[in-house]
Specification:
14 helices; five-stranded antiparallel sheet; PH-domain like; Transferase(Phosphotransferase), domain 1; Phosphorylase Kinase, domain 1; about 475 residues; Ser/Thr_kinase_AS; 3 domains; about 30% helix; 20 strands; alpha+beta; seven-stranded antiparallel sheet; globular
């Protein structure tokens, strides 16, 4: 297909000669200043996810849209527009058929969702796209082998495409997989399956987990009522998860509402452990790899922002306090624009600290900043949270104490009177053993080393998978 069309560029329309090249790989629409020109002026590559649609505000106008860009055009006649739309649509249809007919591994099938190709075992049947996470697209699928059993019947699949393009990000993914494989708690997201990669030197990673319907961020900012009972039960489950997590000598370090998943029956699970780190020592002291570049700023403990070289389990308690307050307010507690603004908001709420309050701050510049802040009394929590339960205000106050050594512990928070109506000590379990970080944190950061660790984890779900793939290489 080829003809002259008007092409929109910026605010103007220019006449160009367009050629649809459907037989090249990848197919494309190319355009020139005039028909006889050899110099191409621009092009748009077509893939199976390309869309063609009319322009509502332009007679005989249409556009061809890909995930990266679009061509906006109009034809001299309705017939010419229809011919172009039909020709481009035919190329897209052909690409879709080629995608569907591409050979998959035995026992696997290929499907498309949200512009991404998934190659998975035939037992997994697509339901819908769920969303996009930090490192990939997430879909929900049915496990046909479990249909009707109620056990892992519907699960979530996250695909991380080209996972090793950034080795630092890849290490976070590897770290999270290793942690989740070892965790065993109802309030922490669980890996159901690690599908076998398609080759030894693989690029994409698939992770199959529990399927959750929403997250706490969406609930807080929805019109859905969030009662005191909800706040109690959600906070209790988060604390149960932290008790278990800390018993493995692991800090989450990135607790925020979007990392807390929920189902309609109010079951709650923590997720996203890519920034987690281990603790050393019985007192929960810090290991040498901890840095201040953790936690979304609004939920970041003050000792991190004050350049403390050592911090403890108390940083997760602070983050949980910020989340608890956000549930009560239905808005963020400390929405700082930068860390200076963040610290000012915090001290306006908890009161200006004394030198004794910041004994743990060893950075002299940070100490002078904190002691130089205008004098302010602690906020009256009952006025700040009108209608909130008195017990909720008391527990929140203890979770948001500036001095980490004075901040309430997870065990004491679980025992607080505010949570008595929902407490079940049988749910407050601890891990049987700590996490061994050595292999992940000590290995040289290379694609091959990270792949090796993932193959070992895949082998826990698919016996002999690593050996089989090595033999097939």
């Amino acid at each position: 297909m080829e003809s002259y069309l008007m092409k929109k560029g910026g605010l103007s329309w220019k006449k160009r000669f367009f050629v649809l090249e459907g037989d090249v790989s990848p197919p494309r629409i190319a355009y020139y200043v005039k028909e006889a020109d050899e110099k191409i002026r621009g092009e748009l590559e077509i893939n199976s996810e390309t869309r063609v649609s009319d322009l509502a505000n332009k007679t005989n106008g249409f556009q061809v849209i890909t995930s990266k860009k679009a061509l906006v055009m109009y034809a001299d006649s309705e017939d010419l527009r229809a011919q172009w739309k039909a020709s481009v649509s035919a190329v897209i249809s052909k690409l879709n058929k080629e995608d569907q007919s591409r050979d998959a591994r035995s026992g696997y099938h290929i499907f498309q969702c949200s512009g991404n190709e998934f190659e998975m075992e035939e037992k997994y049947e697509l339901i819908k796209a769920v969303g996009h996470g930090a490192y990939g697209v997430v879909i929900s699928v049915t496990n046909k082998e479990q249909a009707g059993t109620g056990d892992n019947e519907q699960v979530a699949v996250k695909k991380i495409k080209d996972a090793f393009d950034d080795l630092v990000d890849a290490k976070r993914i590897v770290r999270e997989i290793r942690l989740l494989r070892h965790f065993n708690h109802d309030n922490i997201i669980r890996i159901v399956d690690l599908p076998v990669p398609d080759k030894v030197d693989f690029d994409d990673i698939y992770i199959v987990t529990d399927l959750m319907e929403t997250d706490l961020h969406k609930v807080i900012y929805s019109r859905q009522p969030l009662s005191n009972d909800h706040s109690q039960y959600f906070l209790y489950q988060m604390l149960c998860a932290l008790k278990y997590l800390h018993s493995t000598s692991v800090l989450h370090r990135d607790l925020k509402p979007s990392n807390i998943l929920l189902n309609a029956n109010c079951d709650l699970k923590l997720c996203d452990f890519g920034l987690s780190r281990g603790l050393s020592g019985e007192d929960g002291g810090q290991d040498n790899n901890l840095t201040e570049y953790v936690v979304t700023r609004w939920y970041r403990a003050p000792e991190i922002m004050l350049s403390c070289q050592e911090y403890s389990k108390a940083i997760d308690v602070w983050s949980l306090g910020c989340i608890f307050g956000e549930m009560l307010l239905r808005k963020p507690m400390f929405p700082g624009n930068d860390y200076i603004h963040q610290l000012k908001l915090i001290t306006q709420f908890i009161g200006t600290p004394t030198a004794e309050d910041i004994w743990f701050v060893t950075n002299e510049k940070a100490r002078r900043f904190m002691l130089g802040l205008p004098s302010a009394p602690p906020a009256d929590l009952h006025k700040h949270f009108p209608g909130a339960d008195a017990g909720a205000c008391d527990l929140l106050r203890q979770m948001l104490i500036l001095d980490p050594s004075g901040r309430i512990s997870v065990d004491d928070a679980l025992a607080h009177e505010y949570l008595a109506p929902v407490r079940d000590k049988a749910l407050e379990t601890v891990a049987e053993k700590e996490i061994d970080w050595g292999e992940i944190e000590d290995c040289e950061l290379t694609k091959g080393n990270l792949q090796k660790i993932i193959w070992e984890d895949v082998g826990m779900y698919h016996k002999g998978a690593r050996e089989e793939m090595k033999a097939a290489a």
